Amino acid sequence: MSGRVSSLQKASLSALHFSGIDNLVSRLTRGTGAIFALHHVLPGTPMAFAPNRRLEVAPEFLDRTIRLVLARGYDIVSLDDARARLAEGDLYHPFVCFTFDDGYSDVLYNAYPVFKRYERPFAVYVASDFADGCGDLWWRALERLIRDVDAVELRIDGTLQSFDCRKPAAKNRAYGTINGWLRNLSECDAREIVADLCLQHEVDMSRLCRELAMDWDETRQLAHDPLVTIGAHTRRHIPLGQLSYAEARAEIDVSCARVAREVGRPCRHFSFPEGGAGPREFELAREAGLATAVTSGNGLLTARHGMALNALPRIALDGDLQKPRYVKVLLSGAPFALSRRLAHRRLPTSASV
Q1: pLDDT over threshold 50, residue 83
Q2: Distance of CA 288 to the CA centre of its chain
Q3: How far apart (Å, rounded) are the C-alpha atoms in residues 299 and 296?
Q4: Which H, E and C letters describe 13-69, residue by residue?
Q5: Which of 284, 305, 124 is nearest to 214 (CA)?
Q6: From residue 72, how far is each of 16, 89, 233 by CA, in Å?
Q7: Are 295 and 83 in contact (CB under 8 A)?
Q8: How far apart are CA 192 and CA 240, in angstroms?
Q9: Helices 21-29 and 334-346 sit at what angle, rounded to 10 degrees?
Q10: d(Cα 186, Cα 166) in Å, to the nearest integer?
Q11: What secondary structure letter does DSSP report for 241?
Q12: What is the separation of C-alpha 123 from the centre of its chain, rounded to a whole number of angstroms?
């Protein structure tokens, strides 16, 4: 998301907070609970060139969020507990789950101590190729490439373009343009293009996964604590909607089986990679016998999700939104209700078609 859109999002959330509208409507809009989605927990201030900082929150912010959630009367529960409450209609007390995608090592070293301090549960969805040390983190590879070079040339839609990468502002522009273009391509094409760029500039992208992701020993270290649920996040971290039926099913089945084998307990929970979940994928999760499957779609849990446990929405805890007021407003459900209302107004009427 661009800086402009992020600024608009901050302004909208702040307006709802300072006007008190979120408190006024929360009884109608907050639903029964929420599942938070996170990736990295890293200390310190991001550098001037940190295009993936939205995936990173500080341990202090995580700590404040846990305290805010508890102070506002929410239970912090495991995914198994959330499933039971939704399936059984036990929705009288609001609850929150904390989940982490991909399985980065900073979850073990920076997030786990925070949850342990409060003795509260959380879940980690592991992409099995990442834990094997052979996953393709192309968005991080692109960041590393632009960080380390002074210029990049790339043919975009048939036109050769040159990008100055000498200063942080120029690096951010280059990353924004290239990443924005790549996101409109298939995952496989994006990976191939970034791999070619890294090869041209002698950037070793194969090291990134080993540097950033937990290996299986670290995953087992987390899994030994009953507070931690280890779920699956596919094998290769490819949006399932871009794969054939057989390939998509294998991504779910193989990753769940691998996680179960490595941690020594059944893998009952799954997270769809961003950009690849629809009715076919939800049905695949149901056929796999999973207790829950979560998406990257923003939204709160409601009573109807007791019948849609394989398509649960989450709320992204965004690195650009690390203030308690943003979390409070998101939990109120007001932004999602407003978005639905605006979307409904934009729908064409019969008179305008």
Answers
A1: yes
A2: 22
A3: 9
A4: HHHHHHHCHHHHHHHHHCCCEEEEEECEECCCCCCCCCCCHHHEECHHHHHHHHHHH
A5: 124
A6: 17, 21, 31
A7: no
A8: 18
A9: 80
A10: 29
A11: G
A12: 12
Mean pLDDT of 170-192: 97
Q: Are 1 and 319 a contacting pair, CB within 8 Å?
A: no
- Residue 345: burial class (beta carbons within 10 Å; 0-12, 13-18, 19+): exposed
Q: Is residue 61's pLDDT more than 70?
A: yes
* Spatial separation of the C-alpha atoms in residues 96 and 122, rounded to whole Å: 10
**What's the mean pLDDT in 49-53?**
95
Q: How far apart are CA 90 and CA 87, in angstroms?
A: 8
pLDDT-based confidence at 4, cuts 50/70/90? low
DSSP structural state of residue 213? B
pLDDT band at 317 (very low <50, low <70, confident <90, very high): very high
Average pLDDT score over residue span 72-96: 95
User: 3-state DSSP call for residue 61?
Assistant: helix
Q: What does the radius of gyration of the chain's CA atoms come to, in whole angstroms? A: 21
State the pLDDT at residue 351: 36
Sketch out the chain's domains with CATH numbers: 31-135+213-346 (3.20.20.370), 138-207 (no CATH)
Tokens of 26: 């929360």
Amino acid at 184: N
Amino acid at 302: T
Q: Let me know how long the chain is.
A: 353
Contact assessment for residue 72 and residue 333, using Cβ atoms and an 8 Å cutoff? no
Neighbours of 18 (CB within 10 A): 11
Contact by Cβ (8 Å): 330, 339? no
Do 112 and 67 form a contact (C-beta atoms < 8 A)?
A: no
Give residue 54's identity as a one-letter amino acid code: R
Please give the pLDDT value at position 218: 98
| pLDDT tens track for 249-300 | 999 999 999 999 999 999 999 999 987 789 999 999 999 999 999 998 889 9
Q: Name beta bridge partners: 294.
A: 271, 312
Q: What is the pLDDT of residue 343?
A: 58
Furthest C-alpha separation in the chain: 62
Taking residues 199-220, what's their average pLDDT? 94
Residue 302 is encoded by which pair of tokens? Answer: 């409601």
Mean pLDDT, the chain, rounded, equals: 92
